[in-house]
Sequence to fold (321 residues):
Amino acid sequence: MASNPAYAPLHPVYRVVYKITVLLVVLIPLLATVLAIGLLWQRAVHLSDLILLAVMYALVAFGVTVGYHRMLTHRSFRAHPAVKLLLLILGSMAFEGPAIDWAATHTKHHARADREGDPHSPVEGFFHAHLGWIFRDGDADPKVYCRHLLNDRIVTFVSKTFLLWAVLSLAIPFAIGWLVGGWPLALTGLLWGGLVRMFLTHHVTWSVNSVCHTFGKREFETTDRSRNEWVVGLLAFGEGWHNNHHAFPRSAFHGLHWWQFDFSGYLIWTLERLHLACEVYRIPPTLLMRRSVKAVQETTSPVAAPQSDAQEDEALVERVG
Fold:
Protein backbone atom coordinates (compact mmCIF):
# COMPACT_ATOMS: atom_id res chain seq x y z
CA MET A 1 0.00 0.00 0.00
CA ALA A 2 1.43 3.38 -0.99
CA SER A 3 2.38 5.65 1.88
CA ASN A 4 0.32 8.76 2.45
CA PRO A 5 1.92 12.20 2.18
CA ALA A 6 3.04 13.68 5.48
CA TYR A 7 0.61 15.79 7.42
CA ALA A 8 1.56 19.37 6.52
CA PRO A 9 2.87 21.31 9.55
CA LEU A 10 1.36 24.67 10.45
CA HIS A 11 2.94 27.86 9.16
CA PRO A 12 4.80 29.62 12.02
CA VAL A 13 2.26 32.45 12.09
CA TYR A 14 -0.67 30.04 12.23
CA ARG A 15 1.16 28.06 14.91
CA VAL A 16 1.27 31.16 17.13
CA VAL A 17 -2.40 31.94 16.41
CA TYR A 18 -3.32 28.33 17.18
CA LYS A 19 -1.57 28.38 20.56
CA ILE A 20 -3.11 31.72 21.52
CA THR A 21 -6.55 30.42 20.54
CA VAL A 22 -6.06 27.26 22.61
CA LEU A 23 -4.92 29.35 25.57
CA LEU A 24 -8.05 31.50 25.35
CA VAL A 25 -10.30 28.46 25.02
CA VAL A 26 -8.72 27.08 28.22
CA LEU A 27 -8.49 30.29 30.25
CA ILE A 28 -11.82 31.99 29.49
CA PRO A 29 -13.99 29.07 30.71
CA LEU A 30 -11.71 28.77 33.77
CA LEU A 31 -12.13 32.44 34.68
CA ALA A 32 -15.85 32.21 33.99
CA THR A 33 -16.10 29.23 36.33
CA VAL A 34 -14.32 31.17 39.07
CA LEU A 35 -16.85 33.98 38.57
CA ALA A 36 -19.72 31.48 38.63
CA ILE A 37 -18.48 30.01 41.93
CA GLY A 38 -18.45 33.52 43.37
CA LEU A 39 -22.02 34.11 42.24
CA LEU A 40 -23.03 30.72 43.63
CA TRP A 41 -21.46 31.63 46.99
CA GLN A 42 -23.48 34.85 46.99
CA ARG A 43 -26.61 32.91 45.98
CA ALA A 44 -26.88 35.02 42.83
CA VAL A 45 -27.77 32.02 40.71
CA HIS A 46 -31.13 31.31 39.12
CA LEU A 47 -32.74 27.91 38.68
CA SER A 48 -32.79 28.50 34.92
CA ASP A 49 -28.97 28.84 34.97
CA LEU A 50 -28.50 25.44 36.59
CA ILE A 51 -31.05 23.82 34.27
CA LEU A 52 -29.22 25.27 31.26
CA LEU A 53 -25.92 23.96 32.64
CA ALA A 54 -27.28 20.45 33.16
CA VAL A 55 -29.08 20.21 29.81
CA MET A 56 -26.29 21.72 27.74
CA TYR A 57 -23.68 19.58 29.50
CA ALA A 58 -25.65 16.38 28.88
CA LEU A 59 -26.34 17.13 25.21
CA VAL A 60 -22.78 18.17 24.41
CA ALA A 61 -21.30 15.29 26.41
CA PHE A 62 -23.38 12.79 24.44
CA GLY A 63 -22.17 14.49 21.27
CA VAL A 64 -18.59 13.73 22.30
CA THR A 65 -19.00 10.29 23.84
CA VAL A 66 -21.62 8.80 21.53
CA GLY A 67 -21.05 10.90 18.42
CA TYR A 68 -17.36 11.74 18.13
CA HIS A 69 -16.05 8.75 20.04
CA ARG A 70 -18.10 5.59 19.70
CA MET A 71 -19.95 6.27 16.44
CA LEU A 72 -17.39 8.22 14.42
CA THR A 73 -13.97 7.08 15.64
CA HIS A 74 -14.63 3.43 16.51
CA ARG A 75 -17.65 2.70 14.29
CA SER A 76 -19.32 0.95 17.21
CA PHE A 77 -22.72 1.46 15.62
CA ARG A 78 -24.30 2.99 12.54
CA ALA A 79 -26.78 5.80 13.11
CA HIS A 80 -29.65 7.15 11.03
CA PRO A 81 -28.24 10.09 8.96
CA ALA A 82 -30.31 12.65 10.91
CA VAL A 83 -29.11 11.23 14.24
CA LYS A 84 -25.54 11.12 12.94
CA LEU A 85 -25.72 14.78 11.92
CA LEU A 86 -27.21 15.81 15.26
CA LEU A 87 -24.63 13.89 17.30
CA LEU A 88 -21.72 15.38 15.36
CA ILE A 89 -23.13 18.89 15.72
CA LEU A 90 -23.47 18.36 19.47
CA GLY A 91 -19.91 17.03 19.59
CA SER A 92 -18.68 20.14 17.77
CA MET A 93 -20.33 22.27 20.46
CA ALA A 94 -17.79 20.94 22.97
CA PHE A 95 -15.05 23.16 21.50
CA GLU A 96 -12.78 20.11 21.20
CA GLY A 97 -12.03 20.54 17.52
CA PRO A 98 -13.58 19.43 14.22
CA ALA A 99 -14.90 15.87 14.08
CA ILE A 100 -12.29 14.60 11.61
CA ASP A 101 -9.37 15.98 13.61
CA TRP A 102 -10.80 14.59 16.86
CA ALA A 103 -11.19 11.14 15.32
CA ALA A 104 -7.68 11.18 13.86
CA THR A 105 -6.11 12.18 17.19
CA HIS A 106 -8.03 9.57 19.13
CA THR A 107 -7.26 6.80 16.65
CA LYS A 108 -3.57 7.68 16.86
CA HIS A 109 -3.86 7.50 20.66
CA HIS A 110 -5.08 3.90 20.39
CA ALA A 111 -2.46 3.00 17.80
CA ARG A 112 0.40 4.36 19.92
CA ALA A 113 -1.15 4.14 23.41
CA ASP A 114 1.34 5.09 26.14
CA ARG A 115 4.26 4.79 23.76
CA GLU A 116 6.22 7.25 21.67
CA GLY A 117 3.80 9.01 19.36
CA ASP A 118 0.79 8.90 21.68
CA PRO A 119 -0.65 12.45 21.53
CA HIS A 120 -1.63 12.52 25.21
CA SER A 121 0.03 9.90 27.36
CA PRO A 122 0.87 10.45 31.06
CA VAL A 123 4.20 8.79 30.25
CA GLU A 124 5.20 12.37 29.38
CA GLY A 125 3.66 13.69 32.59
CA PHE A 126 0.19 13.95 34.07
CA PHE A 127 -0.18 17.62 33.10
CA HIS A 128 0.82 16.83 29.53
CA ALA A 129 -1.81 14.08 29.30
CA HIS A 130 -4.51 16.29 30.78
CA LEU A 131 -3.88 19.66 29.19
CA GLY A 132 -0.39 20.26 27.87
CA TRP A 133 -0.80 18.14 24.75
CA ILE A 134 -3.36 20.49 23.19
CA PHE A 135 -0.74 23.23 22.90
CA ARG A 136 1.23 21.08 20.50
CA ASP A 137 0.60 21.21 16.78
CA GLY A 138 -1.85 18.59 15.62
CA ASP A 139 0.15 15.75 14.11
CA ALA A 140 -2.50 13.08 13.57
CA ASP A 141 -2.92 12.98 9.81
CA PRO A 142 -6.56 12.16 8.91
CA LYS A 143 -5.27 10.57 5.69
CA VAL A 144 -3.50 8.00 7.85
CA TYR A 145 -5.76 7.56 10.86
CA CYS A 146 -9.29 8.08 9.50
CA ARG A 147 -9.07 8.30 5.74
CA HIS A 148 -12.52 6.74 5.37
CA LEU A 149 -14.08 9.82 6.97
CA LEU A 150 -12.71 12.15 4.31
CA ASN A 151 -15.31 10.80 1.86
CA ASP A 152 -18.23 11.04 4.29
CA ARG A 153 -20.33 14.07 3.30
CA ILE A 154 -21.99 14.48 6.70
CA VAL A 155 -18.68 14.29 8.57
CA THR A 156 -16.86 16.67 6.23
CA PHE A 157 -19.77 19.15 6.32
CA VAL A 158 -19.87 19.26 10.13
CA SER A 159 -16.06 19.46 10.31
CA LYS A 160 -15.89 22.37 7.86
CA THR A 161 -18.63 24.24 9.75
CA PHE A 162 -17.16 23.50 13.19
CA LEU A 163 -16.88 27.15 14.26
CA LEU A 164 -20.57 27.72 13.52
CA TRP A 165 -21.67 24.95 15.91
CA ALA A 166 -19.10 25.96 18.54
CA VAL A 167 -20.35 29.55 18.59
CA LEU A 168 -23.93 28.33 18.53
CA SER A 169 -23.26 26.41 21.77
CA LEU A 170 -22.72 29.79 23.44
CA ALA A 171 -25.50 31.59 21.60
CA ILE A 172 -28.20 29.08 22.55
CA PRO A 173 -27.97 29.48 26.36
CA PHE A 174 -27.62 33.24 25.89
CA ALA A 175 -30.78 33.35 23.78
CA ILE A 176 -32.75 31.10 26.13
CA GLY A 177 -31.73 33.22 29.10
CA TRP A 178 -32.80 36.37 27.28
CA LEU A 179 -36.19 34.86 26.46
CA VAL A 180 -36.70 33.81 30.08
CA GLY A 181 -35.60 36.99 31.83
CA GLY A 182 -34.02 39.56 29.56
CA TRP A 183 -30.41 40.69 29.67
CA PRO A 184 -29.57 39.61 33.25
CA LEU A 185 -30.54 35.98 32.60
CA ALA A 186 -29.04 36.13 29.11
CA LEU A 187 -25.64 36.88 30.62
CA THR A 188 -25.92 34.29 33.39
CA GLY A 189 -27.26 31.80 30.86
CA LEU A 190 -24.14 32.37 28.75
CA LEU A 191 -22.00 32.04 31.87
CA TRP A 192 -23.49 28.77 33.17
CA GLY A 193 -24.86 27.08 30.04
CA GLY A 194 -21.97 28.22 27.88
CA LEU A 195 -18.64 28.90 29.59
CA VAL A 196 -18.98 26.84 32.78
CA ARG A 197 -20.37 23.98 30.74
CA MET A 198 -17.37 24.27 28.40
CA PHE A 199 -14.98 24.18 31.37
CA LEU A 200 -16.61 21.05 32.80
CA THR A 201 -16.82 19.30 29.42
CA HIS A 202 -13.15 19.95 28.68
CA HIS A 203 -11.77 18.78 31.99
CA VAL A 204 -13.98 15.72 32.17
CA THR A 205 -12.88 14.73 28.66
CA TRP A 206 -9.24 15.40 29.44
CA SER A 207 -9.54 13.37 32.65
CA VAL A 208 -10.10 10.29 30.52
CA ASN A 209 -6.65 10.90 29.00
CA SER A 210 -4.89 11.66 32.28
CA VAL A 211 -6.75 10.17 35.24
CA CYS A 212 -7.82 6.99 33.44
CA HIS A 213 -4.24 6.24 32.40
CA THR A 214 -2.91 6.84 35.92
CA PHE A 215 -5.46 5.90 38.60
CA GLY A 216 -8.02 3.13 38.93
CA LYS A 217 -8.25 -0.61 38.40
CA ARG A 218 -7.42 -2.86 35.47
CA GLU A 219 -9.72 -5.75 34.67
CA PHE A 220 -8.07 -6.66 31.38
CA GLU A 221 -4.48 -7.07 30.29
CA THR A 222 -3.68 -4.47 27.62
CA THR A 223 -0.46 -3.11 26.18
CA ASP A 224 -1.09 0.34 27.68
CA ARG A 225 -1.75 1.88 31.11
CA SER A 226 -5.53 2.28 30.74
CA ARG A 227 -7.60 1.97 33.92
CA ASN A 228 -11.22 1.97 35.02
CA GLU A 229 -12.11 4.95 37.22
CA TRP A 230 -15.74 5.10 38.37
CA VAL A 231 -15.83 8.84 39.12
CA VAL A 232 -14.80 9.67 35.56
CA GLY A 233 -17.21 6.95 34.41
CA LEU A 234 -20.04 8.86 36.05
CA LEU A 235 -19.06 12.36 34.90
CA ALA A 236 -18.06 11.27 31.39
CA PHE A 237 -21.19 9.17 30.81
CA GLY A 238 -19.35 5.84 30.75
CA GLU A 239 -16.01 6.87 29.25
CA GLY A 240 -14.24 6.30 32.55
CA TRP A 241 -14.36 2.52 32.09
CA HIS A 242 -11.27 3.12 30.04
CA ASN A 243 -9.47 -0.19 30.55
CA ASN A 244 -12.61 -1.90 29.24
CA HIS A 245 -12.51 0.39 26.23
CA HIS A 246 -8.85 -0.25 25.43
CA ALA A 247 -9.43 -3.98 25.74
CA PHE A 248 -12.40 -3.83 23.36
CA PRO A 249 -12.11 -0.58 21.34
CA ARG A 250 -15.06 -1.28 19.03
CA SER A 251 -17.54 -2.12 21.75
CA ALA A 252 -20.51 0.25 21.81
CA PHE A 253 -20.75 -0.34 25.56
CA HIS A 254 -17.89 0.58 27.88
CA GLY A 255 -19.69 -0.55 31.00
CA LEU A 256 -19.33 -4.31 30.70
CA HIS A 257 -21.05 -5.20 33.99
CA TRP A 258 -24.46 -4.18 35.29
CA TRP A 259 -22.90 -2.01 37.98
CA GLN A 260 -20.69 -0.08 35.55
CA PHE A 261 -23.06 2.75 34.68
CA ASP A 262 -22.66 3.79 31.07
CA PHE A 263 -25.11 6.52 30.11
CA SER A 264 -23.68 6.66 26.59
CA GLY A 265 -24.30 2.94 26.21
CA TYR A 266 -27.87 3.40 27.46
CA LEU A 267 -28.44 6.05 24.79
CA ILE A 268 -27.08 3.78 22.05
CA TRP A 269 -29.32 0.96 23.31
CA THR A 270 -32.32 3.32 23.18
CA LEU A 271 -31.48 4.47 19.67
CA GLU A 272 -31.23 0.84 18.60
CA ARG A 273 -34.67 0.08 20.07
CA LEU A 274 -36.11 3.09 18.22
CA HIS A 275 -34.53 1.82 14.98
CA LEU A 276 -32.35 4.93 14.81
CA ALA A 277 -29.15 2.92 15.20
CA CYS A 278 -28.07 -0.45 13.85
CA GLU A 279 -25.02 -2.70 13.59
CA VAL A 280 -24.35 -2.10 17.28
CA TYR A 281 -21.12 -3.87 18.18
CA ARG A 282 -21.28 -6.03 21.32
CA ILE A 283 -18.64 -8.18 23.00
CA PRO A 284 -19.58 -11.90 23.04
CA PRO A 285 -19.82 -13.17 26.66
CA THR A 286 -17.34 -15.97 25.94
CA LEU A 287 -14.73 -13.50 24.71
CA LEU A 288 -15.36 -11.24 27.70
CA MET A 289 -14.84 -14.14 30.09
CA ARG A 290 -11.73 -15.33 28.31
CA ARG A 291 -10.11 -11.88 28.28
CA SER A 292 -10.95 -11.12 31.90
CA VAL A 293 -8.71 -13.93 33.10
CA LYS A 294 -4.95 -13.67 32.65
CA ALA A 295 -3.86 -16.14 30.03
CA VAL A 296 -1.04 -18.51 30.78
CA GLN A 297 2.08 -17.26 29.07
CA GLU A 298 2.84 -19.27 25.98
CA THR A 299 6.40 -20.44 25.71
CA THR A 300 6.27 -21.75 22.18
CA SER A 301 4.82 -18.74 20.38
CA PRO A 302 6.94 -17.64 17.42
CA VAL A 303 8.65 -14.28 17.49
CA ALA A 304 7.17 -11.92 14.95
CA ALA A 305 9.37 -9.88 12.67
CA PRO A 306 9.66 -6.26 13.79
CA GLN A 307 7.46 -3.72 12.05
CA SER A 308 8.16 -0.10 11.27
CA ASP A 309 6.08 2.54 13.09
CA ALA A 310 4.12 3.20 9.90
CA GLN A 311 3.31 -0.49 9.41
CA GLU A 312 2.35 -0.92 13.05
CA ASP A 313 0.14 2.19 12.98
CA GLU A 314 -1.63 0.96 9.86
CA ALA A 315 -2.35 -2.44 11.41
CA LEU A 316 -3.58 -0.96 14.69
CA VAL A 317 -5.76 1.63 12.96
CA GLU A 318 -7.56 -1.17 11.16
CA ARG A 319 -8.10 -3.01 14.46
CA VAL A 320 -9.31 0.07 16.36
CA GLY A 321 -11.76 1.26 13.74
In short: The chain has one domain: 14-294+313-320. The first helix runs from residue 12 to 41.
